[in-house]
């Protein structure tokens, strides 16, 4: 297969099969979700064939066994095949973004939730210890929160106060673009977000805030956690202000 032929040249080739339509207004159909999926394939380099959602007749990410004819027929009716071929020495987000852009321009299919990272659990602290008290304002409602003592959280605190527009991702988190990139010195390669977490998604330079459970993600760094009740406010919020606690 192609990935076997290119492996000696330090090139990883992968296929992503995406059933149905890509639409930003439907759960699991956002181009952002699909771009994250492609980025995970780019960084994890695990096998050749991947599916944006599991097929009933075939385990996801099976690089060896071919798809049964019945399942393949259901997919091919409305599917796009995205080929990701990247040099193993290039893990930059820009390379993944280029792959995602190429995929979006040729795709006409609907993705599912981003694949959970298979990286081993980090041996560093969880990132939810308290080092600094902050205050969030979600659509005018104050919510207490804390930041940890990681280099990334300290760099984020240096940007405060911030007022950011929020947009929903996958009906689980609210994301916002930050004015500049944060340091990720000493950060683990991936993290498991929890409800109420504040996090930094390094590949896209975004603040990620969680009101529902979400899968483990490569490039995610936990910054801190909001107090009880914050996640409920977050679920309907369109704007967030982050500042040091008075």
Structural class by helix and strand composition:
alpha+beta
Integer average pLDDT: 75
User: What is the string of helix and strand elements?
Assistant: HEHEHEHEEHEEEEEEEEHE
Q: Which sequence of strands runs across the widest sheet?
A: 6-14-4-5-13-10-11-8-7
Low-pLDDT stretches are 57-125
Shape: globular
Largest sheet: 9 strands, antiparallel
The helicity comes to 10-25%
Strand content: 25-35%
Write the layout of secondary structure elements.
Elements: H1 2-6, E1 11-19, H2 31-44, E2 49-51, H3 69-76, E3 79-87, H4 93-106, E4 132-138, E5 141-147, H5 151-157, E6 162-165, E7 167-169, E8 173-177, E9 190-191, E10 197-201, E11 206-210, E12 217-218, E13 220-226, H6 230-236, E14 239-244
Parallel strand pairs: 1-2
Antiparallel strand pairs: 1-3, 4-5, 4-14, 5-13, 6-14, 7-8, 8-11, 9-12, 10-11, 10-13
Helix pairs in contact: 2-4
